[in-house]
Structure formats: structure tokens, C-alpha cells
Amino acid sequence: MDPVLLVDRRDGWVKLTLNRPARLNAFDDALHTALAAALDEAAADDACRAVLLTGAGRGFSAGQDLAAVPSSVDGAPDLGGVVERFYNPLVLRLHRLAKPVVCAVNGVAAGAGANLAFACDIVLAARSAKFLQAFAAIGLVPDSGGTWALPRLVGDARARALMMLGEPMTAEQAATWGAIWKVCDDDALLSEAERLTAHLATQPTFALGLTKEALNHSSTSSLEAQLHRECDFQRRCGRTDDYAEGVAAFTAKRPPVFTGRGA
Fold this sequence. Notes:
Elements lengths: L4 E5 L4 E5 L10 H16 L6 E5 L3 E3 L17 H18 L4 E5 L2 E3 L1 H7 L3 E5 L3 E3 L13 H9 L1 H10 L3 E2 H7 L4 E3 L4 H12 L4 H14 L4 H16 L2 H12 L11
Parallel strand pairs: 2-3, 3-5, 4-6, 5-7, 6-8, 7-10
Antiparallel strand pairs: 1-2, 8-9
């Protein structure tokens, strides 16, 4: 049996590919467990300075595999238990990972699959890709952080319509509305995503991790609190070898060679 998650370790970064193509990479317990372990390994590995997440086959992810949802004591499906056990920790893992996470959406991203993509730092999508908040069509509410992320990305009016009407958002719309970074031709998506992730793996990882943390707080912090946070993070970055290297490289008019380590 093929592994449900393909882990491809590269020089300074790792490519994680959801690998249940026959089920459009829908999540079951095994895929959740494998992805959690891979993200924890990437977080603990100083040699890994960036992560690329994508899907095998014709789509990124159809979200939850409904056939894999367990029943609660009264016989009803325990969807809340699945969200609490798997999706909430997954979104928090992605937000708290102190390294850039690139997502390459290679086809449909539906339900939790769409919101998983929106939890990543930099999202590229194939021109044929679509993002679908598929929850209302089956009598559910959006989860996996969708009600938090989507209004911040595309605005409240668009988020409400996308979630209540269940209409697909094309890759072009997603880029125009600010939900993703850019659209790529289908046959160029992976090469562009790999190039971008490899580049991020050469950058000042400690500073990028603190940038990510600051951005994660920005929408819920007061200006005063955010200014204090920036001051603290800048002080920490200023004590790193990467800062000294960046200044030296700028002065010498040469490319910097960052280690990614903190002080």
C-alpha cells in the first residue's frame, strides 16, 4: 500500500505531498497522523528551513473523508470530535511553525482542504484550481480556521457569500481578492513552488519565523502591543549572525549567506 503522505527531503527544506489521489486526498486518521508527525519533525529539524505542501493527482484536497468519521455514543457522526482531535491542532501547527510554509494548490481545494491551504504562509495555485467552501451543501459550518482566515483574506462580504452560497472561487479570483499569492500555469506550478521554497530555505529563518509570529498577532493586537512586539523581535534579530552577515553582504555588494539560526 502506498504511503498516505509522501515526504521528500531536499537541501534545507521538505516537500510534503498528500497522497490519497483516489479519494482526492481527503483526510482520514492515517493522513492526519502522518502529516502531524511530518510537521513536528520539520519543526524540530534545524536543517529544515522551509516546508512545501501539495497534493498528488488531480486535486489538492477534498477535505475530510466523510466515510472515515467515527460515530459518537448516540450513533450520530462525531464531526466535532474530528475537528477537535485533528483539524484544530493541524491549523495551529501550521501557524506556530517558525518556518515558512508554502502551499501549491494543484487542483480543487474543498472544505477543510481549502482552509488548510489558507493556513499556510504563501499559497500558489494552478490556473485550473478552485477553492470551495463546501460545508453548507451538506449542512455543516466551515471549520479548520476558515471563519477566521477567509474574512481576513478576502473581506467579510466575500467570505460570507463564499461560505453561505458554496460557490467556487477560481484561482484567478483568489489571487485578485488577496486569498493567495499568485496563479501559475498548471504545468509550471510545482517547479515554481519548489523554486520558491528552495529560496526561502536560504533566507534568515529565525527572522522569517518571528515575522510570521508578528503577522499572526497583528489582527488581534492593539497598535501599542504590536509596536512592543516588533521592538522585542527586532532586538532579538539584531543579535543574530544573520543580521551581521546581511549587513556585511550589503556593504560588500555580495549575496548574503544566511544560517537561519537565532542568537
